[in-house]
Amino acid sequence: MTGSSTRLPRDVRERFRDLRALEGMLITPEDRVWLEKPPARPAPKPTVLYLGCNILRTPHLAQTIVALFEHIGEDFVALGGTAFCCGLPVQTTENRGQSWGERLTIQFGHFQPQQVVMWCPSCLYYHQEVLALATPYPVVHVTEFLAENKHRFSFSPLPPTRIALHYHCGSPAQDRQAAAVRSLLAAVPGIETREIGSLPTWGRNCAGNQRDRMGREAWDSLITPFFDKATALQADVFATAYHGCLRMYGGYEKGQPFSVEHYLSVVARALGITYPDKYKQYLHWKDEEAILQDASANMKASSVTASSASPVVKRIFVDDCGF
């Protein structure tokens, strides 16, 4: 797929280029505990953990979910990156979305899986609802997989932690995923979830292009009441159910009486699993020079140049334009 990137529309090429630059800034190649290219001879695996592309903008979450699968002893392979794109970014380009989705299903099949666990809600929606791709194995969202397997985790008690969960609603799939997140959180000693509600306005997950269409003022007026509810309920953590939401709200943490985190980071702490959220840290810094300096070692290891990283840093972290 990446080999044909030069024939893709400019916006898609830039999307993939910026994603790879951002991943290279945030982690080293050794940190990538997932496959980013199809192997020549795939070994059979009962479970395929499909990370998709967007999670690699917050690679600490990819590291976290892989560590959780390892913790429960799941026999799996993790796939992520533009070479395994679901096809959604190119769905309007000469029907490539269909062909890419079908190719991804073939790639899954090479591992002879008994199940595919998908991280991204948009990838899952595109696979099941838009393309309606048939597979001989079940395809489930990661939230539902984790909830069904919560008995396999050996959680240690956390200090009393009140969580206000930001979730999405409006479809049966979203309702199941939100319920699964609550179920997993409830299995962790010390966690108490406080209900703040949701809105169907947010769609499948929060994203920068949504905020751009609405305008920053309208977007802020949409999310602020939920921050206020979390504050009134004395939440310690405003937890997001999806990775896109974490990117959108991490920069709003300053001045709040709670932290903004992905729910999985909280769950993982009860297992002694922690990875730093450099994406949120850089959103708070908003300093291009400091960010490039801090990321320089990772960039060198990943062959990411300052000239390719600089516009990404300015747009994403300094101007907080989302992705």
Provide a descriptive summary of the structure in words.
This protein is an alpha/beta fold and 323 residues long. 46% of the residues lie in helices and 11% in strands. The chain has a 4-stranded parallel β-sheet. Helix 6 links the parallel strand 5 and strand 6.
> Helix and strand string, N-terminal first?
HEHEHEHEHEHEHHEHEHHHHH
Give the beta-strand count. Answer: 8
Q: Could you say which overall geometry the principal axes of the C-alpha atoms support?
A: globular
How far is the first residue's CA from the last residue's CA? 21 Å
Percentage beta strand: 5-15%
- Helical content band: 40-55%
Major β-sheet profile? 4 strands, parallel
pLDDT averaged residue by residue:
92
- Model regions low in confidence, pLDDT < 50 over at least 5 residues: 1-6
- Sheet/helix structural class: alpha/beta
Enumerate how many helices there are, as a single number.
14
